[in-house]
Specification:
One of its GO terms (molecular function) is succinyldiaminopimelate transaminase activity. Keywords: Aminotransferase, Transferase. The chain is α/β, with parallel strands linked by helices. 42% of the residues lie in helices and 13% in strands. The chain has 2 domains: 132 residues, Aspartate Aminotransferase, domain 1, CATH 3.90.1150; 249 residues, 3-Layer(aba) Sandwich (Aspartate Aminotransferase, domain 2), CATH 3.40.640. The strands form 3 sheets. A 7-stranded mixed β-sheet has the order 2-8-7-6-5-3-4, with helices on both faces. Strand 3, helix 6 and strand 4 form a beta-alpha-beta unit. The chain is globular.
Length: 408
């Protein structure tokens, strides 16, 4: 006789949706793409540019010492100092604006930190709602559910690419414990401007929610003379020098081409950092010392980051030259994704047919979004990650163009 008892685990587990790449595997199951030319995966944002030699060397040199010591959750002082120096220089903050001891906490990449922040700081009994842009990085939704909270989708505006916050009622804001934002955005590549932050700061002052800004794509911008605005920088411009209620999340994965290093940090409001540090002490996710040593080398060098931007800039230039007249799209301000409106409007059908004809894998936009009463802002798009070598990406764009010309 079958048992009616609930499966083991917390209730939020049953509400988790399949991860986008699991859905993609199911969508493409049974399709045999052509073996020549070679398949190209554009579906996942895993950087393929070379790992900087200085980072690899620091990692190797630190292993022997690292293996015999427990790392502290707070991280090495020299790592926090390197991060504070980078933040001050990159976001034009005063020399004393970021205190390495009070405002910074190392993390095992942004994914770990973005998930953990909701577990640590959300009170689901008091303010259960977790707002997030739609489309979005699915970790936000999973974090809300597993913290006992309620995900609330903010559809992105088709023109601005920004989440629409004006239609949210005061009653809804009063139930908001935390809002996730991503700038530059995944998948749109749009940058949140100061005017948006000003509006959100006014709402936060009335309602007291935490702002969690995912800025992992902040260093992959197109215009070298205009780096993307960051949340801490927006705070400083408004006189919020304590970064009240605000946290930013950064990673070396995209900036320095080291996704396997699993290194990043959280920075912002000292009160929130203190609470988050207490949580992570029990969670047990301190960075190994050799990872921290390599991270110091990474945050202390900008040469490889500028070379990284140059490479992405060239790939986007070639992609636009090849695709713009057959599949128009809005040029991203930053990041390494093209958010492509698909001919015919069916993102799943386009993905399957493209893979069958060319061996190129893209990600349907609806796998990055949720349908709402106002529609599904991800449907009708595919996300393409220009992470491979320039020649590989250019070849993929030419195959996509030929596929579109022959099929639509």
């Amino acid at each position: 006789m079958a048992s009616d008892r609930q499966a083991p685990g917390q209730p939020g587990l049953a509400r988790l949706q399949p991860y986008p790449f699991e859905r993609l595997r199911a969508l493409l199951a049974g399709i045999e793409p052509p073996s020549e030319p070679a398949p190209v995966p554009l579906s996942i944002g895993e950087p393929k540019h070379p790992v900087p030699a200085s980072i690899a060397s620091a990692l190797k040199d630190g292993v022997a010492e690292s293996l015999g010591r427990y790392p502290a959750s707070a991280g090495l002082p020299e790592l926090r100092e390197a991060i504070a120096g980078w933040l001050g220089q990159r976001f034009r903050l005063d020399d004393t604006a970021v205190d390495p001891d009070r405002h910074i906490l190392p993390a095992a990449g942004t994914r770990e930190a973005l998930f953990a922040v909701t577990q640590a700081l959300l009170d689901p009994a008091d303010r259960p709602d977790v707002f997030m842009p739609n489309p979005f990085y699915q970790i936000y939704e999973g974090a809300a559910l597993l913290a006992g909270g309620r995900p609330r989708m903010l559809n992105t505006d088709a023109d601005s690419g920004l989440p629409v916050i004006e239609a949210v009622s005061d009653a809804d804001w009063a139930r908001c414990g935390l809002i996730y934002l991503c700038s530059p955005g995944n998948p749109t590549g749009r940058i949140i401007p100061q005017a948006f932050w000003q509006r959100l700061f006014r709402l936060q002052a009335r309602h007291g929610f935490v702002i969690a800004a995912d800025e992992c794509y902040s260093e992959l911008y197109r215009d070298e003379s205009h780096p993307p605005l960051g949340l801490l920088q927006a705070c400083a411009a408004e006189g919020r020098h304590g970064f009240e209620g605000c946290l930013v999340f950064h990673s070396l994965s995209k900036r320095s081409n080291v996704p396997g290093l699993r290194s990043g940090f959280i920075a912002g409001d000292a009160r929130l950092i203190q609470a988050f540090r207490a949580y992570r002490t029990y969670q047990g996710c301190a960075l190994p010392l050799h990872v921290q040593k390599a991270s110091v080398a990474a945050w202390s060098d900008e040469t490889h980051v500028r070379a990284n931007r140059d490479a992405y800039r060239e790939k986007f230039r070639r992609a636009r030259a090849i695709l713009a007249d057959v599949a128009p799209y809005r040029e991203p301000e930053a990041g390494f994704y093209i958010w492509l409106p698909v001919p015919g409007g069916d993102d799943e059908a386009f993905t399957r047919a493209l893979y069958a004809a060319t061996g190129i894998t893209v990600l349907p936009g609806r796998y990055l979004s949720r349908p709402t009463a106002d529609g599904d802002p991800g449907a009708g798009h595919v996300r393409m990650a220009l992470v491979a070598d320039t020649a590989v990406c250019e070849d993929a764009m030419r195959r996509i163009r030929q596929f579109i010309e022959q099929t639509y």
